[in-house]
Target: Asparagine synthetase [glutamine-hydrolyzing]
Amino acid sequence: MCGIWALFGSDDCLSVQCLSAMKIAHRGPDAFRFENVNGYTNCCFGFHRLAVVDPLFGMQPIRVKKYPYLWLCYNGEIYNHKALQQRFEFEYQTNVDGEIILHLYDKGGIEQTICMLDGVFAFILLDTANKKVFLGRDTYGVRPLFKAMTEDGFLAVCSEAKGLVSLKHSTTPFLKVEPFLPGHYEVLDLKPNGKVASVEMVKYHHCRDEPLHALYDSVEKLFPGFELETVKSNLRILFDNAVRKRLMTDRRIGCLLSGGLDSSLVAASLLKQLKEAQVQYPLQTFAIGMEDSPDLLAARKVANFIGSEHHEVLFNSEEGIQALDEVIFSLETYDITTVRASVGMYLISKYIRKNTDSVVIFSGEGSDELTQGYIYFHKAPSPEKAEEESERLLKELYLFDVLRADRTTAAHGLELRVPFLDHRFSSYYLSLPPEMRIPKNGIEKHLLRETFEDSNLLPKEILWRPKEAFSDGITSVKNSWFKILQDYVEHQVDDAMMATAAQKFPFNTPKTKEGYYYRQIFERHYPGRADWLTHYWMPKWINATDPSARTLTHYKSAAKA
Model:
């Protein structure tokens, strides 16, 4: 996890523009560098480093003697870099996983390069020999990337939007900043004056398709067919592999643990893999909640069962409310459910950074979207409609859960790893017949739970624990976090303000006082940037007015049972 930043064709003083890059210093607390591009006085790279792999030669932009005309700035982890290096007999100059991008590009061009990368990444690749700039981002947008481009060819790229919003350019008083789409790469021509022109934007991977790099990985052969036992065996093989490949780091590994199915499976599998790899330190697991929180109780149970070194972080409503401003600044969004869920994750990341030496943090993000874990999937009209919705959620992860997971951890210099969004695991899961993936017997994620039933990874009551949203599980059922927030906001936003909400915020007009309050904070930090969020996250197929699972009738009946 690092912070990347680059400008091409800047007509303002670079030493002034470079101040913007310092807005993302939290992403790389270990070192930083600015570097001008030879022959282009108005082009430069900025890089903030979190040293996770190759502490000696890991600074960027990466340049190697063999390709003096290539400059690479990337944020991410390429898990198959060693396998590809051996396969194609590339001569490495560093131990940095990203060096593989330079060799693959030289061998086969950008399309083949990006399709071969098994990992999470956002990159800027400059080829001064062929006068090209390439931007690319992983399938689900696990690593963030934003860009701003003007009609006269000024291009600015950054890991977070906050590193771009203050930039100046002569032809425009307000630089339009937008997220770079996941699963895409862009080709741009570099002109002699340092400015660029977009040539094409290409979608290189759909989450349903098996990735090209599957041809070269070391996963044992999967069994064909969709018999239940066959599918369960394949899922176990792929999930094990997803966790194992993510052990790639020189820093200590920890794991977020809410006590729900997803984080518990990740923690249990991770601990098993660390033992097999003979890692010498105990796995630290981290849970957060208020007193009487069901998450804390469940997480404690899992930690005792798997034998991790468990940390519990308690917070009260005042601390949560006080964090809202810095959370919304870090997130760069005002989406209601994202903000609610981010407070706990932000506070626990702060604790991890301050009190431990765990830096690489595993988490269960992506599972709900992939395995139809949200409670509203019980109301899906058909397996096919549920499949459509699952794919839509995965496509939009970069606006919601993946955004939350990245920004709340990166704000404290931590790197997040999410095995459920592994290319092989997710594409296989999405290839299964739609009727296999829907909730069964009133239980969501039935197939995933069944898959691990006989593995002895988790206690049965955790394996079959019903879905609880992270923003709900951190508080007691009697007093949900969303209710605490709504009660507080009631005194901050009055009816007169709500009456003029549509005039003040014509785009994505907030319908509730809570939404209005978050939007106000967002506009204070990022005025006029509301279009970064295309729409609010909200359950489907039910007349929901609030994104909390605890407001749904299915949850209420389960709580009574």
Summary: Residues 556-561 have pLDDT under 50 and may be disordered. The chain is about 35% helix and 15% strand. The longest helix spans residues 336-355.
